């Protein structure tokens, strides 16, 4: 196993709150990321994912614990580490006074790249982001998806060893998300190490080789998407709806239908190896759901199992 | 994709990062300056029209209008000079302060809040002190252009009797502009929400300073209870240095030192404050 490019041991970030004990946004995270790996942090809003990303990005200092990025301590070597990272923040922070190409050019200058190299890289990355015809457009004239792609392109101006993506597709329509995923797959193929946070389980399943499930600043589980599902959920899930006023009442009669039953406000989830067979057992018991759906288990189910809450609340 | 042996070793990656970090550590402030100056090009015409139009208007108004009314020379420290010669250095300093009140307020708010581009700078090798430096240097560059243009005009209007030292007024102007602007930048960086604070700065800081800092008449003309405005105002201190430079105003060496020191202190205190504000806010 090659040495990890990111290594965190008992990472803690505490914020002072007036008149209260310190708030632990990150509470003892330990994980490692191998070179070329695509590593995800999955969790709901406020789980501590962005705070962890800021510490990995060497912009926010840790309260305690050990952190090493590319073999360097971010407290001491912030600029050196950042010079080899690409960062795609949650909120776009492009300069609206400049056009798309200038945004790339000037960002390259921050890394000390010569002007000519910045020009070449800017053109190459505009092509990568499929924005060649928008090179001269002011950032404000671009759509949300285009701005995201431009921000990703900007993060690649220094051929980074590690690309950090914080909620890369939040707020994008499905088509724009797929275009973006495609670009990220290409980077993965080139061997760029990707670290991303997301609260979309499909995104985590699509993009991550391995992930940690984070809640309230702590790791709830770690593994590949498939192994997490295998370990913490059944193969299939039967979703049935009896109407919001009846779901809780009917759930009591469904105990024997599957391995486990989870009641949500709008539906009942029945975890089972065979969804169709479970549905037959439901109807055989004389219960007729308004709607029913059999699907594969997902990371959403893993999260629900581990925390008792759903990812998007 | 799983890790493959083609990836460089950790030692190689560490060495590479140390090498890449060298240039931004040394020159990062200039990279930010370059960005700020490039961004100014978006409103380049406003800058040029302001830098040329303002002096022409003021000087015509005062030289042709007001000076015609004020026939008697101004007596400054027992020295008699024409009204225009007296007013010109203060107007020049005002131009720098006007640039400061634009470049060190809204772009700072944009960098932290509206556009958030300071966070983008900070995700690159650039550190927060370098971002503050770049904002200051970018504003200073624009101040220099505005003040140098102003100097050219007052010279053409015949308001620089001692051209051999007169050019020093340009630097006095930039220094006064920064003495006003750097603390303002720190303040702008500490504002979470724009509730019209900058408009208040314009009305209740800039305007009184302009009116009561010995701009249009010697400060001593004012009653004692109003003179303090001049004393705390970088405009008065800058203008006095400018007057020494352009017409050899009779200011003793001790006072001249006070004028220079006051501007320096404002710059240094503002800078330390600004660095702290930038560092804390970007690490949040």
From TrEMBL, chain A:
<dbReference type="GO" id="GO:0046677">
    <property type="term" value="P:response to antibiotic"/>
</dbReference>
<dbReference type="GO" id="GO:0005886">
    <property type="term" value="C:plasma membrane"/>
</dbReference>
<protein>
    <submittedName>
        <fullName>ATP-binding cassette domain-containing protein</fullName>
    </submittedName>
</protein>
<dbReference type="InterPro" id="IPR003593">
    <property type="entry name" value="AAA+_ATPase"/>
</dbReference>
<dbReference type="GO" id="GO:0016887">
    <property type="term" value="F:ATP hydrolysis activity"/>
</dbReference>
<keyword id="KW-1278">Translocase</keyword>
<dbReference type="InterPro" id="IPR003439">
    <property type="entry name" value="ABC_transporter-like_ATP-bd"/>
</dbReference>
<feature type="domain" description="ABC transporter">
    <location>
        <begin position="6"/>
        <end position="241"/>
    </location>
</feature>
<comment type="similarity">
    <text>Belongs to the ABC transporter superfamily.</text>
</comment>
<dbReference type="Pfam" id="PF00005">
    <property type="entry name" value="ABC_tran"/>
</dbReference>
<dbReference type="GO" id="GO:0005524">
    <property type="term" value="F:ATP binding"/>
</dbReference>
<keyword id="KW-0067">ATP-binding</keyword>
<dbReference type="InterPro" id="IPR027417">
    <property type="entry name" value="P-loop_NTPase"/>
</dbReference>
<dbReference type="InterPro" id="IPR050763">
    <property type="entry name" value="ABC_transporter_ATP-binding"/>
</dbReference>
<keyword id="KW-0472">Membrane</keyword>
<keyword id="KW-1003">Cell membrane</keyword>
<keyword id="KW-0547">Nucleotide-binding</keyword>
<keyword id="KW-0046">Antibiotic resistance</keyword>
<dbReference type="InterPro" id="IPR017871">
    <property type="entry name" value="ABC_transporter-like_CS"/>
</dbReference>
<keyword id="KW-0813">Transport</keyword>
Automatic annotation (TrEMBL), chain B:
<keyword id="KW-0472">Membrane</keyword>
<dbReference type="InterPro" id="IPR000412">
    <property type="entry name" value="ABC_2_transport"/>
</dbReference>
<feature type="domain" description="ABC transmembrane type-2">
    <location>
        <begin position="46"/>
        <end position="281"/>
    </location>
</feature>
<keyword id="KW-1133">Transmembrane helix</keyword>
<feature type="transmembrane region" description="Helical">
    <location>
        <begin position="253"/>
        <end position="274"/>
    </location>
</feature>
<dbReference type="GO" id="GO:0046677">
    <property type="term" value="P:response to antibiotic"/>
</dbReference>
<feature type="transmembrane region" description="Helical">
    <location>
        <begin position="166"/>
        <end position="188"/>
    </location>
</feature>
<dbReference type="InterPro" id="IPR013525">
    <property type="entry name" value="ABC2_TM"/>
</dbReference>
<dbReference type="InterPro" id="IPR047817">
    <property type="entry name" value="ABC2_TM_bact-type"/>
</dbReference>
<dbReference type="Pfam" id="PF01061">
    <property type="entry name" value="ABC2_membrane"/>
</dbReference>
<keyword id="KW-0813">Transport</keyword>
<keyword id="KW-1003">Cell membrane</keyword>
<protein>
    <recommendedName>
        <fullName>Transport permease protein</fullName>
    </recommendedName>
</protein>
<feature type="transmembrane region" description="Helical">
    <location>
        <begin position="81"/>
        <end position="100"/>
    </location>
</feature>
<feature type="transmembrane region" description="Helical">
    <location>
        <begin position="43"/>
        <end position="69"/>
    </location>
</feature>
<keyword id="KW-0812">Transmembrane</keyword>
<feature type="transmembrane region" description="Helical">
    <location>
        <begin position="139"/>
        <end position="160"/>
    </location>
</feature>
<dbReference type="GO" id="GO:0043190">
    <property type="term" value="C:ATP-binding cassette (ABC) transporter complex"/>
</dbReference>
<dbReference type="InterPro" id="IPR051784">
    <property type="entry name" value="Nod_factor_ABC_transporter"/>
</dbReference>
<comment type="similarity">
    <text>Belongs to the ABC-2 integral membrane protein family.</text>
</comment>
<dbReference type="GO" id="GO:0140359">
    <property type="term" value="F:ABC-type transporter activity"/>
</dbReference>
<keyword id="KW-0046">Antibiotic resistance</keyword>
């Amino acid at each position: 196993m090659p040495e990890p490019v990111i290594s965190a041991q008992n990472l803690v970030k505490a914020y002072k709150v007036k008149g209260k004990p310190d708030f632990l946004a990150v509470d003892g995270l330990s994980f490692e990321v191998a070179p070329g790996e695509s590593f995800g942090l999955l969790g709901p809003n406020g789980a501590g994912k962005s705070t962890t990303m800021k510490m990995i990005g060497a912009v926010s200092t840790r309260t305690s614990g050990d952190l090493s990025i590319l073999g360097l301590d971010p407290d001491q070597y912030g600029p050196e580490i950042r010079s080899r990272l690409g960062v795609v923040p949650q909120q776009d922070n492009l300069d609206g006074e400049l056009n798309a190409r200038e945004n790339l050019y000037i960002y390259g200058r921050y890394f000390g790249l010569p002007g000519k190299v910045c020009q070449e890289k800017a053109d190459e990355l505009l092509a990568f982001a499929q924005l060649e015809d928008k090179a001269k457009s002011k950032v404000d004239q671009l759509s949300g998806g285009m701005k995201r792609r431009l921000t990703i392109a900007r993060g690649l101006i220094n051929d980074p060893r590690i690309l950090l993506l914080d909620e890369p597709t939040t707020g994008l329509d499905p088509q724009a998300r797929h275009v973006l995923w495609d670009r990220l797959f290409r980077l993965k193929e080139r061997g760029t190490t990707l670290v991303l946070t997301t609260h979309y389980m499909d995104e985590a399943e699509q993009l991550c080789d391995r992930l940690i499930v984070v809640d309230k600043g702590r790791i709830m589980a770690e593994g590949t998407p498939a192994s997490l599902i295998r370990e913490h959920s059944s193969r299939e899930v039967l979703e049935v709806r009896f109407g919001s006023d009846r779901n809780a009442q009917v759930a009591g009669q469904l105990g024997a239908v599957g391995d486990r039953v989870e009641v949500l406000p709008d539906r009942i989830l029945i975890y089972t190896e065979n969804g169709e067979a479970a549905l037959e057992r439901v109807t055989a018991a004389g219960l007729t759901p308004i709607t029913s759906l059999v699907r594969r288990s997902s990371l959403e189910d893993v999260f629900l199992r581990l925390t008792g809450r759903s990812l998007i609340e | 994709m799983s890790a493959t042996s083609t990836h460089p070793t950790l030692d190689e990656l560490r060495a590479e990062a140390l090498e890449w970090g060298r240039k931004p550590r040394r020159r990062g402030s200039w990279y930010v300056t370059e960005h700020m100056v490039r961004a100014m090009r978006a409103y380049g015409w406003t800058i040029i029209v302001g830098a040329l139009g303002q002096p022409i208007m003021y000087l015509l108004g005062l030289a042709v209008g007001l000076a015609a009314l004020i026939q008697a020379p101004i007596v400054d420290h027992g020295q008699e000079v024409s009204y225009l010669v007296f007013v010109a250095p203060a107007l020049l300093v005002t131009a720098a302060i006007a640039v400061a009140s634009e470049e060190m307020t809204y772009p700072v708010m944009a960098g932290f809040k509206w556009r958030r581009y300071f966070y983008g700078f900070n995700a690159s090798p650039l550190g927060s002190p370098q971002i503050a430096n770049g904002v200051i240097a970018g504003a200073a560059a624009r101040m220099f252009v505005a003040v140098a243009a102003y100097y050219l005009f007052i010279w053409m209007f015949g308001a620089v009797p001692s051209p051999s030292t007169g050019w020093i007024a340009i630097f006095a102007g930039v220094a006064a502009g920064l003495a006003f602007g750097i603390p303002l930048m720190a303040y702008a960086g500490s504002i979470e929400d724009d509730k019209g604070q900058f408009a208040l700065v314009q009305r209740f800081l800039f305007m009184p300073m302009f009116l009561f800092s010995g701009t249009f008449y010697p400060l001593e003309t004012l009653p004692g209870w109003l003179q303090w405005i001049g004393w705390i105002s970088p405009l008065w201190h800058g203008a006095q240095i400018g007057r020494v430079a352009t017409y050899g105003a009779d200011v003793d060496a001790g006072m001249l030192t006070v004028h220079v020191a006051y501007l320096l202190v404002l710059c240094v205190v503002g800078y330390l404050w600004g660095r702290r504000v930038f560092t804390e806010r970007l690490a949040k």
